[in-house]
Structures are given as C-alpha cells and as structure tokens.
Amino acid sequence: MSKNLHTDIERGIIALNRLIEAYEQNRFFNIEKLPEEILPNEMEKGNNAHLLFLSFISSLGYLRKEELLWTAARDTYEDQDLRYLFEPAQVLTKSLSELERDLKEYNLLLSLNQMKNEHIKFKSVDRRILKENDLALWVNFASVFHQFNDSVEDLFKSFDYDSVKILEAFSNAPYSECFPDYQKERKIIIWLLRIKENAAFPIKNFEKLPMPVNYHIIRASFFSGAIFGTANSIQ
Predict the structure, then answer these.
(1) Pairing of the two strands 3-7 and 227-231
(2) Cβ pair 16, 22 in contact under 8 A
(3) C-alpha radius of gyration, the chain, whole number
(4) Exposed (0-12), middle (13-18) or buried (19+): which is 185, by Cβ within 10 Å?
(5) pLDDT for res 119
(6) For the segment 200-219, what is each residue's pLDDT rounded down to a tens digit?
(7) Whole-structure pTM value
(8) Which residues lie below 8 Å from residue 232, measured CB to CB, with a gap of 6+?
(9) 3-state secondary structure 150-212
(10) pLDDT at residue 130, rounded to an integer
(11) How far apart are CA 223 and CA 140, in angstroms?
(12) Most confident of the ranges 109-123, 139-153, 201-215
C-alpha cells in the first residue's frame, strides 16, 4: 500500500475543542442527548440499576443502529413484566426460551433478517453474526454480576477500581464471554467509559487504556485535519 500521511496534532485539538464547545452549547446538529444518555422512566442516573442497564446493552452494542438499540432497551426496562431482564439474579432463574421470548418483545434480540431490515451492510469481517449469540452474552453477563452480589460497584471494587485490570479480565476467560469476539477490546473500553461517566465511584487508570479506534474515529481524524495526505486504503 502506497501512502503519504502527515499529522498536525495541534490543528486536530483545535477542531476537537470547537466540536466539544458546540456540543455543550447544543449547536451540534441540534442533538441534546446521545441515545445512551436518555434514561428509561423511573431510573435514577448513576445508581446500580442504571449501571447494570448500561452494562447489558453495551455487550450488544455492535452491528446495530444505536438509536434503535437504546430505544428497545428503554422500552424493555419500562415494561414492568420485563424489567427483571436487567436484574442478574432474576435472569438466572429463567429458562433460555423464556429469556429469548422476553428479549425479543421489544427487539433487543434481533434475527439476521431483522438486522438486515435495519439496513445494516454486512461484510466478510462481520463473521461474528454467524457465531455470536446475544442471548448467551446476556446470560453470561448476568452470571458474572451475580458473583458480585448483582452490584456493578462490587465488581469494580474487586479489581481495585482499576480499568486496566478490568479490561484484561474481560478480555480473557472466564469473563471474556460477556462481550462478542468481534472487536472485543473496543466494546469493553466503551463499556468502561459509560460506567466511568455515570458511576458515583471513581475508576482508576482510565488514561492508560488504548484508544478504541474504529472507522468513525479514523475518518474524523482526517476530517479534523489532525491527519492528512494520500493513501489508497483507510487503513
């Protein structure tokens, strides 16, 4: 691959600060909140129920349109008969058929055909769709949290609130099956970021985590002017 790339970090920082300012002043495409920032009714920001909610949905956050995924999550939580799905101890009392039925009620679980109806373009690298099982991820996460008294803070406390330790733990057995193999590290880091932004307890060493780079970040880096030049591949 022939390429000729250069960096202008200072220009990128200026662009980033302008974007942050525009977002905070609600001048950023009129977006007031990201889909994950809109809480279900009867949920208090930062409490254990909220952190569990963020955790379960973060494990499914791939190859899905974010606004549709989080809408399905809120609809499920607001249904009193289905709220148990976000309570690890209750999840583990149900059969897989019951869980599958209830998770499908508001499309938290989607079939391949349903995902295609969301106009998601599948590529060869999206092979995880053929082997990952969202239902298994949900049950695995419930099982892990139940080991820590159904408490997100108890889980983080067991790793000394250290984000690097938690990333390593969830990247390997026995906790690795809480996230899909497809871009696993990036998904774990995004989950850690969501917990960090909402939890009352502090999380250490977050600045030591690798940047969870995806195509959106690569393209944004070019658009900001932080990276410029020529290349015949986005890689």
Answers:
(1) antiparallel
(2) no
(3) 19
(4) middle
(5) 46
(6) 999 999 999 988 777 778 88
(7) 0.82
(8) 1, 2, 3
(9) CCHHHHHHHCCCEHHHHHHHHHCCCCHHHCCCCCHHHHHHHHHHHHHHHCCCCCECHHHCCCC
(10) 41
(11) 39
(12) 139-153
Give the separation between CA 220 and CA 30, rounded to whole angstroms: 19
Structure tokens at 138: 């949900």
Residues in a beta bridge with 230: 4
Q: Is 163 in contact with 205 (CB distance < 8 Å)?
A: yes
- Tokens 């889909």 map to which residue? 35
Tokens of 82: 């289905």
Q: Which residue has the tokens 């996230």?
A: 179
pLDDT band at 223 (very low <50, low <70, confident <90, very high): confident
Q: How many residues does the chain have?
A: 235
Beta partners for 7? 227
Query: In this structure, are residues 220 and 6 in contact, taking their beta carbons and an 8 Å threshold?
Result: no
Give 211-223 as a DSSP string. P---HHHHHHHHH
The mean pLDDT of 137-165, rounded to a whole number, is 97
**What whole-number distance in Å separates Cα of residue 76 and Cα of residue 223?**
37
User: What tens digit of pLDDT does each residue of 34-84 get?
Assistant: 889 999 999 999 999 999 999 999 988 666 788 899 999 999 999 999 999
Axis-axis angle for helices 184-198, 48-58 (nearest 10): 160
